[in-house]
Amino acid sequence: MEYRTLGRTGLRVSTLCLGTMTFGEADDSSFMHKVGCDEDTAFAIMNRALDGGINFFDTADVYGQDGLTERVIGKWFDRDKRRDDVVLATKFRFRMGRGPNGSGASRHRIMRSCEDSLRRLRTDRIDLYQVHMQDVDTPEEETLRALDDLITAGKVLYIGASNYAAYRLADSVWTSRTNGLARFASLQAQYSLIAREIEREHVPLCREHGLGILPWSPLAAGLLSGKYRGSQRPPAGSRLDQWKDRWGRLDNERNWKVVDALVMIAAELGATPAQVALAWLLRKPAVTSVIFGARSLAQLDDNLEAGAVRLPDEMVRKLDEVSAFDLGYPYDFMARIQGRW
Ligand SMILES: NC(=O)c1ccc[n+]([C@@H]2O[C@H](COP(=O)([O-])OP(=O)(O)OC[C@H]3O[C@@H](n4cnc5c(N)ncnc54)[C@H](OP(=O)(O)O)[C@@H]3O)[C@@H](O)[C@H]2O)c1
User: Which of 91, 155, 234, 277 is 20 to 30 A from 185, comparing alpha carbons?
Assistant: First the structure.
C-alpha cells in the first residue's frame, strides 16, 4: 500500500480509503436501504482493510439512518480496539435533527453534530471533520471559526470540505488565510472515469492551494466494476438495480464506451476493471486517496489490489480520451488556444 500526505498537512493516509456508507442494515427510511451490508460483514471488512494496509476510513453522520453507520464503527472500535490504527474521517451538514437548526454548517449545528458523532463513534477525536456540502445560508467564516475552535479543543485534528462549488472553496481558503483560521486540508468530491467535471475548476484550485482530493463514488456506484453491461438489466440486488434514477442517468452510449475500454485494458493488464478504474484516479493530479465502497469481503479484496496496479502512460491516455467530456466555455476556448486552462 502506498501512503500520501493529506494536502498540506503532515498526516499520512493510504491511497485507498475505505468508504463506509454501506455499513449497517438501514431500514426503508434510508437511501441505503437494501444496498448495504450487516454489522458482522462491516466488522470483517474493516479488519481486512486494515490488515491490507488501508489506514483511512470515511463515514458521515447521515449514513445508514439516524447515525447507524457511525454507531457500527463505534461498536467495532470498542470490540476490536483498533481505533488508533485508523485515520477517521466523518462529515456533518445534512439534516440530523428537528427544526430550523437541525441541519446546516452554523456554529450551533457544528458543536452539536461533533458531540453526537463523537458519542456514536465512541472516540475522543475525529481525525478529519468534513462539511458534507457547502451551506450558503451560513457565512463561511462562521463555519471555519467553529471548526477552528474544535481543533483547539482537541476534538478534531484536521478539517475538510465536500461538495463545494469552486468559488466557495476559493473563498474559504482565503477566509482561513486572512483570519488566521484552520484551513481545509482536503476536498471530497465525486470523481471517476464517468464523472470528471471537477477537472474544470476544482482540480486546478486544489493544486494551487495544496488541498488533497478525495474522490467519492470512484466506481460510479459499481458501474466501473464491469458487472453492468449496456442493454442488459443490472444484476439483481446490486445498487444500480435498486437505484433506478441513477441507473437511468448512467445508462448512455458515452458511459458504455468507457466501460468497454476499461474492460479491455483490464484484460490486457491481467487486472479487474474496478482495479483499473481506481488506479486511473491515483494517476490524477492532487488526488491523495480514493474513497471506494465495498459491501462484501470479495469486493474489498478486489479493490484492495488496485494499489498494486501500475497503469502505463498510454493506457491512462486511452482512458482519458474515451472518457473525455464536454468542457464548455470558457475552458474549451482556452484549451483550443493554449492546450490548458
Ligand atoms: N461526500 C459525499 O457526498 C459522498 C457521496 C457518496 C459517497 N461518499 C463516500 O464515498 C464512499 C464510496 O462511495 P460509493 O459506495 O458510491 O463508491 P463506489 O466505489 O463507486 O461504489 C461502491 C459500490 O459498487 C459495488 N462494488 C464495489 N466494488 C466492487 C467490485 N470490486 N466488484 C463489483 N461491485 C463492486 C458495490 O455495490 P453493489 O454490491 O450494490 O453492486 C459497492 O457498494 C462512500 O462509502 C462514502 O464514504 C461520499
Answer: 277
